[in-house]
Amino acid sequence: xxxxxxxxxxxxxxxxxxxxxxxxxxxxxxxxxxxxxxxxxxxxxxxxxxxxxxxxxxxxxxxxxxxxxxxxxxxxxxxxxxxxxxxxxxxxxxxxxxxxxxxx
Length: 104
Prior knowledge:
Layout: E1 2-5, H1 8-20, E2 26-29, H2 35-49, H3 65-68, H4 70-103
Parallel strand pairs: 1-2
Helix pairs in contact: 2-4
């Protein structure tokens, strides 16, 4: 299992829990709102693990800015909750397509 997120401390804690229960885990720090960061993270996972077997896309959040500056808050929430999830799913899908094409 590869965990991904922005907060390294939380990633390390969850990774440690998985390992303590006998599982295998690693993590990658990535801000899914940043397209190039997502591309690099997915490529790194594929390079390290060979392929991505599945994806649980569970990012989400809200923004205090939404209450203070509605437009800025709206963009922040959309970037995390919608665009970020799309970017991760797209890159995982594209890595699968590239792998399938390479076998043909």
